[in-house]
Amino acid sequence: MGILRPECTSFVTPHIMSSEFYIKIQVEILPFSGKYFTIIRRNITQELLEALADSPVLFLRGARQVGKSTLVKNLLADTFEAKYVTLDNATVLALAGGDPTAFIAGQPRPLIINEVQRVPELLLAIKEAVNTDRKPGDFLLTGSANLLTLPLVSDSLAGRMEIQTLWPLSQAEIHERKTDFVQALFDKAFARQGAAEEYDLPDILIAGGYPEAMTRKTHKRRSAWFDSYLTTIVERDIRDIARVQETATMLRLVRLLATRTSSQLNQSEVSRTMQVPNATLGRYMDLLEKVFLIHFLPAWAPNLGKRLVKSPKLYMVDSGLAAHLIGADADRLVSTPELAGQLLETFVVNEILKHLTWSNVSATPYHFRTHAGLEVDLILEKPSGEIACIEIKHSAQVAPKHFRGLKALKEDIGDKFQSGVVLYGGTEVVPFGEDMFAVPISALWG
Predict the structure, then answer these.
(1) Coil, strand or helix: which one is 395?
(2) Which three-class secondary structure state does DSSP give residue 54?
(3) How many CB atoms lie within 10 A of CB 274?
(4) 21, 205, 272, 323: which is deepest, by most CB within 10 A?
(5) pTM of full prediction above 0.85
(6) Continuous segment of H or E residues that includes residue 9
(7) Which tens digits make up the pLDDT trace of 336-374?
């Protein structure tokens, strides 16, 4: 299945199928032409089920409108007959905020609490309930803000709560596949692959992964959705967790940061451009990270005897959102390769983070850059210290020069280097020496 095109209209209804979760999307092709159903499976489902089988509390975090509520209501409500309450409801919010302990004590279990960050004091009440009667799968919480960074919460459920992240739809999910690109990296499985399927890269980049935005009929309607989405997050979610009043400044900052996506952020430069004090700017960016609009990729800093750049790289959480904020459509990406490369790196890094939520391999993502200019876009490091590396190129052709950073890193770290891949805009897997491959971008979902 390809990407849902703008001319399609759809709505989402969920259901359970063989212990795996699917989203059923009804798509109308043309007026009066009838309807058909396309099914998208959320690949993180098995990990959620396993967490509920042995953890008293599961917290599913992620940006608004990525499908958290739809997923958990049906995952538990249909399987375990859990009660579902949402703190988006004014009455429930008032009850929960008025007396969190009494609110939790009066609810049946299993219990799903949606948007729990709106009353963070509930976490202390849940801790007390778990300590009194500890059973797996009793509480499933969702939040569109990172609970671990909120006051009173950081250690309230240590050892009692498992945390999972739901991102916007991945291309693997859109294509109805559970591709594990991370495992393929460490297994060097690309040598067994042939030609990959063709794909429309500009359309993929501007579509992004928010289900509702993807189904809007026109570019104008998608832009209207993104504008409304950003306003809701800044004027509601950020106010909920920080009481920030400067919403116009926050929205201006988001637009500016979108132009810096996939780059090392110079906070002082942004501070001067925004005319916002550096300390205030740092607080604002922290809030944008908490509500999953941006994220940072830390620098990899092994002891290689080199002078390394240690600052993290900034990414928007979705390439479609970034394209909207920059004002880029598919035609502009075709005519502006530098911008296309910037959005492509954002897209690939985000796709890898999505794969990490369901991969059989546990690894931590980093970027790598020396002051001499040697760099690798993405490094995945296992707890054992083994690494696999990715370079990201927009071009349809790959040359030996594109492997310079990968080969230099392999020479430096020796046996811990498992594989180096240049993801590029072509369709063929091409070996480039021992443990080195040029791999089509479509391998992320192929």
Answers:
(1) coil
(2) helix
(3) 16
(4) 323
(5) yes
(6) strand 9-17
(7) 999 999 999 999 999 999 999 999 999 999 998 877 778
